[in-house]
């Protein structure tokens, strides 16, 4: 069960903000929004391609250039 403990004297707004941040980092809110409406197989494929390209950009950025090296060649 997901949740946050409201500390003594803490405003409810701050506790809600912590809960929302926690759910957002785990991807629960995005999944809930996605399941709210029907998604055709074509839309599902497009969504997965978009997310895969974002993942590959990040992976490419960090896996190609070793630390401290320039990526450009100088002639």
TrEMBL record:
Q: What is this protein called?
A: Small ribosomal subunit protein bS21
Single GO term (MF): structural constituent of ribosome
What are the protein's UniProt keywords?
Ribonucleoprotein, Ribosomal protein
Coiled coil located at which positions? none
Give the family from UniProt: Belongs to the bacterial ribosomal protein bS21 family.
- Look up the record and give one Gene Ontology term from the biological process aspect: translation
Q: Which residues form the signal peptide?
A: none
Residue spans with biased composition (Basic residues)?
A: 45-60
């Amino acid at each position: 069960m997901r949740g946050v403990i409201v500390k003594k004297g803490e405003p409810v707004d701050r506790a809600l903000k912590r809960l929302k941040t926690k759910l957002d980092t785990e991807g629960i809110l995005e999944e809930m929004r996605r399941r709210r409406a029907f998604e055709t197989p074509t839309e599902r494929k497009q969504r997965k391609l978009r997310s895969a390209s974002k993942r590959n950009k990040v992976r490419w950025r960090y896996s190609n250039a070793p630390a401290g090296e320039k990526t450009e060649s100088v002639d």
